[in-house]
Amino acid sequence: MAKFTVNSSRFDPYLGFKFKVKWDGQYVAGLNKCGPLKRTTEVTPWYEGGDSSGPHQIPGKTKYDAITLEAGVTHDTNFETWANKVNNFQGDAASSLATFRKDITIEVYNTQGAKVLAYNVFRCWVSEYQALPQLDASGNAVMITTIKLENEGWVRDSSTTEPKES
What we know:
mainly beta; 5% helix; Pnp Oxidase, Chain A; 41% strand
């Protein structure tokens, strides 16, 4: 069976460096890295009386791993503003728990710039925020800011289909 339904002669998988992340209807500026979408389902052993062949294994609870986003430090305050909704330095009275969760979309593009995959990630919130990396006067690295997003699951956006040419 062909791995690509529209471009059946294509053999190589998509590259992982062309992607965009969107929340609140806007793309995140200057995004450098996006962590993986990963879920793990616990294995629950189940023993049946009279069956000595060992335990049956049935699926238990599913856990969705946090997603880390990294961007170069600029004057864009999207990461910081979102992180402050959970941990506001002004105290509990200034925190808005009504708006600290966001649904985000992660889009993957082919080398020609056509969107080939998209995943919708639900009820994300910032559990870790790094405003600045370690600073080093003798280095020449780009400064990176980081947020870690907890989430309650994700699904593939079935409206995004394989483009005609990739």
